[in-house]
Every structure is written in structure tokens, then in C-alpha cells.
Design brief:
Distance between the termini: 54 Å
Helix content: 55-70%
Largest sheet: 5 strands, mixed
Strand order of the largest sheet: 4-3-5-7-6
Length: 587
């Protein structure tokens, strides 16, 4: 990492004088003001982000709980598996985040009970996310310090911009890896910026740090591997004639910094899971990039607000007019920013909404945008400042209005709350498994996997393929008939739970074997947009006694409808002090 002072070096008195070995009074005062400004700008931004995050209560998305389950089992000594004793399948795609959660569990901070009366499975991931956000703002200050005499103002603006952005806040505090991913990408951008600004870009320290941070980004999310290209691209842009040999050496050092950690994990993945890609990537069948993918960038512009983006682009154009230290630094930031946009465009559309894959775009955009706007304002004449300020006010108001609508609508109907899955699916099916006296070796096929993996006492079969190797292979080629053959002929799960229209998507509803071999215990009215759109089926040979079947149907219907009726607040609350396999609905 680059070494950057938080304040300008204090003035030093004449070496021959009494105070030659210490800062003068004005220097000490300047240092204190600088430290205070840096601290306040970071703290205020962090507090604003925390306030916005509190708007969504204890909500976390169910997919986050998949990683929770893996981290629990890793920390408990069962290895990185979905459930103790399960076949090793890499049903997560965020090793760095998973390792941090496992460390939290080992330290007694995660998956143990409550902290200050709040369940630690809520507090620890959200607290860790907040620390990552604070670190991002600290890095913003470090980067801004290199390019502007107003780094505290830049940090305050960037922090406020991130705090009002629902996409950034929702996904950083969703329980997923977004916060640590954005932190790694921001750190990489700032390291490269410092190298360019200080003339040390080609040193081993900068090169290897950039490579290592790119590796950590790639181990935070699969698409993070794209940032391995950031350092070589910047080197190519700033290498002058005659500087090719040291540039090649620096790129090779950066490659080594990337390959050692990332390659080490690939080796572990091959040994442990027998694959070079995470099972999640295979199940989702990410298509190859197409030129039309670039149109997805428009969704980011629309979300941020076209007018605000236009103002930032105009300020950027003004900054880029003449060669300067500022222009060089902005170019260094634009490279990882462009890579983040490319990664977003290449990834297929995400069902979770709110631009889940755009988090690095927001972090780098806030940093670069705040710098070019502040510097344009600082250097503009009076009339220019008035015009730019007035336009900024209008643009900001427009963007905030859009953000308010987005945040309010998501809070009202968030995607798949994991505690709702725990209450509606895991605990209810545990209860019916107890009623039917099913052994722990019995299987249940599910779609919403996270809460089930944490709380189900049965062996969970992921019908969406994220944590099932065979199903992932079938889904990668859209072979839904193969999925059904595997389920009906080999797995034969005792229970099956579908949500939304997955029973139709996978062809179960159309397959006569489903009706022949399984009896419905509960099926809600078909409304794919509703939380209560769920169905539970049991294998017919387990409920041959009509009284047993009726009791099971009555139990599942009653308990499921209780959760559905309470869902006006269920998506914002926790689901008990602890989450353990075998829990049933609370009285």
C-alpha cells in the first residue's frame, strides 16, 4: 500500500533554532486540523451509511445464509460444506467473505447467540460491512489527498453519495460480500493512484500490492478477476519510450502478486471440489459476453440520475483538458472504474434487483466524481461556480428523489428475507418431519437454500443447483428433464419445497411422476410476487394413512399461513437469538 500522510507536512523551523526538531505552532495546528477533518469526514459518512442501513432493519437476503452455513461448518471443523457430512460442493462464490465469517465464529462473535441483545448472525455481518464502508471512506480520503487540497470535503461528499444510494447500502448490508468486495476494489484503485502520483508505480511494493488486491477482489466475487488487468493497463498508459523493461518487470511482479493467492485457492478448489469454477457459476451458466451487453450501463446511469452523471462527466472533461497531476490521477482511477462497468455489463441480469453487481461502480464513482466536481468548483470563476452549484443542486435533488423511491419500495417488499425462509420453510418442514417421524438421513429438495441449510434437520438438496454438483451440470445446459430424472430416480427426497414458479420452471408441475409419487401438503395461491407463494410436497409412501396425511397438511398449512400473515414485519426482523438445526415453529 502507498504511504500517505493525513495532513500536509508541518513547517519546520530553522535547524539552528530551538524548535528545529519539532513542528512550529502553526504546523501543529495545521496537523490537528487535518486529522480532525479527515476523522470527521470519514465518521460522518459512516454514520450516514449506518442510518440508511437501519432503514432495512435486520433484513438479509437468503443467499447470504448459504455462506453463513459454510462458514459455520468450516469453523466447527466439518470443512467448507453446506451441512456436516455433506459432499464437498462449492455452493458459495465469496471465499474471502466466508473466511471472515468463519473467523468471527471462532472468535465467538458470530453464530453463538446475542451481542447487546441483537442476534450475532445479524450484528456481525452488518457490523463487518460497516467497518468495510468506513475503510472505503478512509481510502477515499487517502486518494483525494493526492489530488486535491480539499480531501475532507471530497470524502464527505463521497460518503454522503454512498449513504443516499439504496443500491450501495442494500447490498453492503444484505449479508453478502458486497462491502468487502468494494473495499478491495477501492484499495486497488487507490494503490494504483498513489503509484502514479508519486512516481513509484513500477516499484515492487506497488506492483505486488496491486496484484494481491486484485486477487482478493477475485476471491470476493468471481467477476473480481477482471481487476487483475487494472495494473497492467495503467502501466501501459503511463510507460514512456525507453521505460519498457521496468514496466514489464512491474507487470510480472503484479502477476505474481495475483497468481500466488488466487492460484493457491484454485489449487485448493481443485483438490477439495474437483472443479476450477465454483459450482454456483456452473449452475447459473453465465453466457459469453456480447457487444449488446454494453447497453446494461444505461441502467446504472438511469439509477444514479442522468443529470447528476452529466454534471460529473462535464467536470471530468474540464479536468482532462490539460496535462496535470490531477489528470494523471483521474486517469489512474478511470481504469478500475471502467473495469467495474465492464464486469457489470458482462454479468447476466440478477434476480435480486437494485443493481446488486454495481457496488464497486458506486464506490469508485463516488471517489472520482467527488474529486472532479470539487476541483472544478475550486478552480472555476465566480460565475462558473454559481452555475455549476445551481446545476448540482438540481441534479442532486433529482437523484435523491429517485433514490428515495427505490429504497422505500425495496424496504416494503425486499427480496427473499432469510429469516422468513427460516420461519416459513426450515422450521415448518422440521415440524412436519417430526410429525412424520422422518430420520435425520431423510432428504428435502428446496429452492431457497440459506435458511434451510442453517436450520433444517434433514439433508438439504438444492434444486436450484448452487450446492448440488449433478443438478448444476444439468442446469448449465438447461436440461430440466435431467434434473427431474435425477430427483425422481436417484434422490427421491422425502419432502420437496418449491417457491414461486420453480415447480413450473423445472418442469415438475408438468411431469406426471410428480403427481404420481408426491402428495401436496400445502400450496398457496399462485402469485409469484408474493412471499407466501410456496408449496410443500411429501412422498406418498410416507403418508399412506389418510389421518397422517390430513394431520401433516393441517400442520403445514396452519404454520405456513402464520408466517405469511406476519410477513408485514417478518422481512425486517430477526428470527430468534440462535439458529440451530432441528428448530420448529415457536409457539
Amino acid at each position: 500500500m502507498c504511504s500517505v500522510q493525513l495532513t500536509d507536512p508541518p513547517s519546520v523551523a530553522d535547524p539552528g533554532g530551538r524548535d528545529g526538531d519539532r513542528p512550529s505552532g502553526d504546523g501543529r495546528a495545521s496537523t490537528r486540523r487535518g486529522i480532525l477533518g479527515a476523522s470527521l469526514s470519514v465518521i460522518v459518512g459512516t454514520v450516514l451509511i449506518a442510518v440508511h442501513a437501519s432503514f432495512y432493519g435486520n433484513w438479509m437476503i437468503d443467499d447470504a445464509a448459504i455462506t453463513f452455513a459454510y462458514s459455520r461448518n468450516l469453523a466447527d471443523g466439518f470443512g467448507p460444506v453446506l451441512q456436516p457430512g455433506a459432499e464437498p460442493v462449492e455452493g458459495f462464490s465469496n471465499p474471502v467473505w466466508m473466511a471472515l465469517l468463519a473467523l468471527g465464529k471462532l472468535l465467538g462473535l458470530f453464530d453463538h447467540g446475542t451481542i447487546f441483545g441483537v442476534p450475532d448472525y445479524v450484528l456481525f455481518p452488518k457490523g463487518l460491512a460497516l467497518l468495510c464502508c468506513m475503510a472505503i471512506l478512509a481510502l477515499v480520503y487517502v486518494g483525494a489527498k493526492r489530488l486535491t487540497p480539499r480531501p475532507a470535503l471530497v470524502t464527505l461528499i463521497a460518503g454522503t453519495a454512498l449513504a443516499v444510494n439504496p443500491s450501495f447500502v442494500i447490498w453492503c448490508f444484505s449479508g453478502l460480500e458486497n462491502s468487502v468486495y468494494a473495499l478491495m476494489v477501492t484499495a486497488l484503485a487507490v494503490v494504483i493512484l498513489c503509484g502514479v502520483d508519486s512516481g513509484t508505480l513500477l516499484t515492487a511494493k506497488i506492483a505486488m500490492s496491486a496484484g494481491a488486491l486484485a486477487a482478493l477482489a477475485g476471491l470476493s466475487r468471481p467477476d473480481g478477476v477482471i481487476y487483475a488487468a487494472a495494473f497492467p493497463i495503467v502501466v501501459a498508459l503511463f510507460t514512456r519510450r525507453g521505460g519498457v523493461p521496468p514496466a514489464i518487470r512491474a507487470v510480472l511482479l503484479s502477476a505474481a502478486g495475483f497468481v500466488v493467492p488466487f492460484g493457491g485457492y484454485l489449487l485448493f478448489r481443485w483438490i477439495e471440489y474437483g472443479r476450477l469454477l465454483p459450482n454456483t457459476a456452473i449452475a447459473k451458466a453465465q453466457p459469453l459476453p456480447a457487444i449488446t451487453d454494453i447497453a446494461k450501463a444505461g441502467t446504472v446511469l438511469q439509477y444514479a440520475g442522468w443529470l447528476l452523471v452529466a454534471v460529473a462527466v462535464v467536470c471530468l472533461a474540464l479536468v482532462m483538458q490539460k496535462p496535470s497531476k490531477l489528470r494523471a490521477g483521474v486517469v489512474a482511477l478511470l481504469v478500475p472504474f471502467a473495469l467495474s462497468v465492464i464486469a457489470f455489463c458482462v454479468l447476466q441480469a440478477d434476480w435480486m434487483g437494485q443493481l446488486r453487481f454495481a457496488t464497486p461502480i458506486w464506490a469508485l464513482g463516488a471517489l472520482g466524481g467527488a474529486i472532479v466536481i470539487v476541483e472544478t468548483l475550486r478552480k472555476a470563476r465566480i460565475r462558473g461556480r454559481i452555475l455549476l452549484t445551481a446545476t448540482l443542486v438540481v441534479a442532486t435533488a433529482s437523484s435523491i428523489s429517485g433514490f428515495h423511491i427505490q429504497g422505500k419500495s425495496y424496504r416494503a417488499v425486499p427480496k427473499t428475507p432469510f429469516c422468513s425462509v427460516v420461519e416459513r420453510d426450515a422450521r415448518v418442514t422440521n415440524g412436519v418431519a417430526d410429525l412424520l417421524k422422518l430420520p435425520g438421513s431423510a432428504k428435502i429438495g428446496v429452492i431457497d437454500l440459506g435458511g434451510m441449510a442453517l436450520v433444517s434437520r434433514l439433508q438439504v438438496v438444492d434444486l436450484a443447483g448452487l450446492a448440488d454438483r449433478v443438478i448444476a451440470d444439468y442446469l448449465s445446459t438447461a436440461d430440466f428433464a435431467g434434473v427431474r430424472r435425477y430427483v425422481f430416480d436417484e434422490l427421491r427426497p422425502e419432502l420437496i419445497s418449491f417457491v414461486g414458479t420453480w415447480d413450473t420452471t423445472l418442469g415438475f408441475a408438468q411431469d406426471e411422476r410428480f403427481g404420481q409419487e408426491y402428495e401436496v401438503l400445502y400450496r398457496s395461491p399462485r402469485d409469484p410476487s408474493a412471499f407466501g407463494d410456496v408449496g410443500v410436497w411429501v412422498r406418498k409412501d410416507l403418508v399412506r394413512d389418510p389421518a397422517v396425511l390430513a394431520a401433516a397438511q393441517r400442520y403445514v398449512t396452519t404454520e405456513t399461513q402464520k408466517v405469511v400473515a406476519a410477513n408485514s414485519v417478518a422481512h425486517l426482523r430477526s428470527c430468534g437469538d440462535t439458529l440451530r438445526p432441528g428448530q420448529t415453529p415457536r409457539p
